[in-house]
Amino acid sequence: MTTQTDPQTKLSAYAHPERLVSTDWLAEQLGDQSRSEGDLVVLESNEDVLLYDTGHIPGALKLDWHLDLNDQLSRDYVDGEQFARVMGERGIRRDTTVVIYGDKSNWWATYALWVMTLFGHEDVRILDGGRAKWVAEGREMTTEIRDVTPTDYPVIERDDRTIRAFQQDVVEHLGKPMVDVRSPGEFSGELLSMPDYPQEGAMRGGHIPGAKSVPWGRAANEDGTFKTREELEALYQQEQGLAPTDDVVAYCRIGERSSHTWFVLTHLLGFERVRNYDGSWTEWGNSVGVPVER
Amino acid sequence: MAGQFTASTRTDDLPEAMAELAGEFHELGQQERLQLLLELAGDLPDLPERYAGRLDEMEQVDECQSPVFLAVEVASDEARTVSIFLSAPPEAPTTRGFAGILHESLDGLGADEVLGVPDEAPFRFGLAEAVSPLRMRGMVGMLGRIKRQVRARTTIDERQ
């Protein structure tokens, strides 16, 4: 556990250390008066849409995974124009450093980072430990929502080919490395009797044939921070036999927990080709004619 | 995305306190609705001593992703007055807010009035647009379980 006491040392061991920041680093940046508004924007992205309103990191703005990042009509992400509006309203420029944090061990923060990456926003980082760690350390929180000078964020076409997998891509991927990050019960197919979840249930339980079961939480410590590079290599590379050059697809139920694993494999371990299958089990388990394994 | 339910502004088939609260929400814009929901989250009373620390004796509302616990008591008076006890963590304010709406609307009503609340009542507060329809299922689940418990308890009473 000594690695955790020195976050800087811990971060520099990752493949892309620039993708993660410590609470110390963020507190220091926020105190820097010479910084201008659009250089650094902090976003909070939670499962609970009201949590931000109960108090947030000073200066942070809310980014809701569902209302801001999902299209409200079809099951898809916002398009380039909607994304430009969401970014512009928050005073984000194309060259802004964006730091995202959230609840639930940063599920929705990594989900937001993944969506921003679909639009090629270059400098997006995650606050290691998320909201829970900042709060646990007794750092400043506020309910005050700061004024924003809107920006004219460019309209960028979403890239769905590089880090996103659609169902057909997964069908073609069968036989290649795949990671199912859901709980063991969901993987085995036992946990599917969800009579009260009409919108998220699936007709079939189980997993995509050949997928390895690596629940997302194995990559996180109890305080929500990511495990060290050494621990992550032991998990994904030694135990699961994945290699950084592998073509990997990760999935869960709706693509949020697998964003966490996508972030770990891509940015912390430096895997070159990882795609998140956001349709995940709510699509696969309801589809006609696709193979299921139990 | 609202599943089998359609958002509605109808309130004439709701109990009085619920209709009033629904009316209050409808008078507000989206952002103010969230603020009212947050206030209701704050107003949710703590559990009385007989339930505090005994969550395992309460019913867990699985439709909520955060741990929500529910207990229902039905008095033996003529109206069979219903008391509702709900517990939701502060880090889940939306869920707490839903619990607050149901507590404020239904606690103290007679069993028949609670059982007469339409199952789609959670969609009458104009919240689906403010919090996304996807998140409404927690409140639908809570209401369903409250009614189920009231039904179970009144059925037993009738047998006695």
Give a verbal description of the structure.
The complex is a heterodimer of chains A (about 290) and B (about 160). Chain A has about 290 residues and is of the alpha/beta class. Chain A has 11 helices and 9 strands. In chain A, strand 8, helix 10 (about 255-270) and strand 9 form a beta-alpha-beta unit. The model of chain A is unreliable at about 1-5 and about 195-200 (pLDDT under 50). Chain B has a 3-stranded antiparallel sheet. Chain B is globular. The model of chain B has no long low-confidence stretch (mean pLDDT about 90). The interface between A and B is medium-sized, with 17 and 26 residues.
- Which outline of chain A best applies? globular
Rg estimate of chain B, integer Å: 15 Å
Figure out the total of helices of chain A: 11
Oligomer: heterodimer
Number of helices of chain B: 6
Low-confidence stretches of chain B: none
Question: What is the CATH class designation of chain B?
Answer: Alpha Beta
How widely separated are the two ends of chain B? 44 Å
Structurally, the number of domains of chain B stands at 1
